[in-house]
Specification:
By secondary structure, this protein is α/β, with parallel strands linked by helices. The chain has helices at 4-16, 20-32, 37-57, 63-84, 107-118, 132-142, 158-169, 185-191, 200-212, and strands spanning 94-99, 122-125, 146-150, 175-179, 195-196. Helix content is 58%, strand content 10%. Strand 3, helix 7 (158-169) and strand 4 form a beta-alpha-beta unit. Helix 4 (63-84) packs parallel to helix 5 (107-118) and helix 6 (132-142) crosses helix 7 (158-169).
Length: 213
């Protein structure tokens, strides 16, 4: 029987090496060893995802590897889910994500979605080229805690402002997080958004703070 340390290390390694089989095996071992799924997700799988996001930010790996790692993550989560639903660890909050109207870039958003899913958030990804009203609809339908919008072009970043304006108009209670090359801390502050997200690696920490805050 593997020790808790070994199992946690296997969980972490399964994500770092995007090994779906290992992720599944390690998740089952964790349950057999009586490790709390929340603990396994946060300190095992989550640590692996942190490595992945760091490597991605340093351009040592690319999107296919990030997506492969998130597939391994999903496999492990499938093992934990039936057990997690009974506890309160099943979801740390709901986040609606999309790329804004007029913009078809999805890489950044996909990385953020993979990271957030990996960290145990319920992620509702509504795709790319999404109009502000669709963001609001999805927030209402899913009772989301946070809405995230990515814009990769100077011409589309203004849509982030439209989203904030619409949230205010409709008086929807949801926190906002924005990212993308033309976005910045100053820009998000100027449009009344809550948080600027500079990279996929930081998304989990920022969203966690938003929901707690």
């Amino acid at each position: 029987m593997s020790s808790k340390e070994e199992i946690m290390e296997s969980l972490k390694k399964s994500i770092e090496t995007w090994d779906v089989k290992l992720a599944e095996t390690a998740a089952k071992q964790a349950l057999d060893a009586g490790i709390d799924p929340g603990d396994a997700v946060e300190n095992g799988l989550g640590k692996g995802m942190e490595t992945i996001s760091k490597l991605f930010d340093e351009a040592k790996i690319f999107l296919p590897q990030v997506l492969a790692a998130s597939k391994a993550m999903e496999k492990a989560l499938e093992v934990f889910e039936p057990v997690m639903v009974k506890g309160t660890t099943s979801s740390r909050g709901t986040v609606v994500l999309a790329t804004v109207l007029g913009d078809i870039h999805e890489i950044g958003k996909n990385v953020v979605a993979a990271m957030l899913k990996g960290a145990g958030f319920n992620v509702v990804d509504i795709g790319r080229d999404v109009a502000p009203e669709k963001f609001i609809e999805a927030v209402k339908e899913n009772n989301a805690d946070v809405v995230g919008a990515s814009a990769l072009m100077t011409t589309t970043v203004v849509v982030q402002k439209d989203i904030v304006d619409m949230i205010k108009e409709e008086n929807v209670s949801v926190k906002t997080i924005f990212g993308g090359a033309p976005a910045s801390e100053e820009w998000v502050a100027s449009i009344g958004g809550d948080v600027y997200c500079p990279s996929g690696a930081e998304a989990v920490e920022l969203v966690t703070k938003l929901i707690k805050g």
